[in-house]
Amino acid sequence: MSLTLVMEHVEAPSTATSLAPREQEALSHIAAGCTYLQAARNMGLSKHTVDAYLRRIRAKFGVNTTAELTRLAISMGL
Length: 78
Hints:
With 78 residues, the protein is mainly alpha-helical. It contains five helices and no strands.
């Protein structure tokens, strides 16, 4: 028996219409490998605010993992 992993393809709509500027910034920091705390410090925000931005992004695009967030960021050109 073999297992096959199937990943749902996420279409990335235009960045300007899909994400707020601070959501884009938070996503780019996470995609660059920063932790939530590092992203927060870079953005001058609390860790909880960055978490809220990323939760909104996850809800908008139906992604669950940091890897999927990274893939989304790459597809958006961030």
